[in-house]
Each structure stands twice: as C-alpha cells, then as structure tokens.
Design goal:
With 83 residues, this protein is mostly helical. The protein has a domain of 40 residues. Helix content is 81%, strand content 0%. The longest helix has 36 residues. The chain is flat and about 65 Å long. The termini are far apart.
Length: 83
C-alpha cells in the first residue's frame, strides 16, 4: 500500500511540474505581497458600526455568562437536595 501512495505522490508531483506550477519553498516577499493584496480587498467597518457590533458582542457574552451561572446554581441547588 505504501508503494502505491508513493507512486501517486510522484505522479502528482510530475503533473504539477508539467503544468508549470512551481514546487519551490516558502517565499516571504511573495507571501507579504499577496497578504497585502488580500487586505486591500477587505471592507473595513466605519467607527459607528464597529462600536455597535462590539457592544452587541459584549452584551451577548454577558448574557451567556449569566445564563451559565444561573444554570450552574440551579444544578448545584438540585444536587444539594438530592445528596
């Protein structure tokens, strides 16, 4: 089974080289250039939207924490009655 996998890898590598795709290592300059290009595509929120969504996230986290706390207290109370 290993020989088959090795053969498939070699075949795939040969096909990549035939198609003109480089199999070179990591190129930091190209990485940062492509990263900058992707960040240029991002639509950044304005200040009002950023603040509004941040407040919504903080409120949801607080609500979730309060719910978990209350459920924990309920189960603790129920366990104290049983045990």
């Amino acid at each position: 089974m290993t020989k088959t996998n090795d053969a498939e890898k070699e075949k795939s590598k040969a096909n990549d080289q035939k198609d003109g795709q480089a199999t070179a290592g990591f190129n930091p300059a190209q990485f940062f250039q492509e990263t900058k290009g992707e960040l240029d595509k991002v639509v950044w929120p304005d200040r009002q939207r950023l603040i509004g969504e941040s407040v919504a996230v903080v409120l949801m986290v607080a609500l979730s924490a309060a719910t978990i706390y209350l459920v924990d207290q309920l189960f603790g109370w129920a366990a104290s009655l049983i045990f």
